Amino acid sequence: MLQLLPKSSTLTPNTSNPREAVEIINSYIEKYHCANMSVDISFMNVLDACYVSTMCSTKHFIKYPEGKINWIISSELVRDFNKHLELGNSDYTI
Question: Does the pTM of the predicted model rise above 0.90?
Answer without folding.
Answer: no
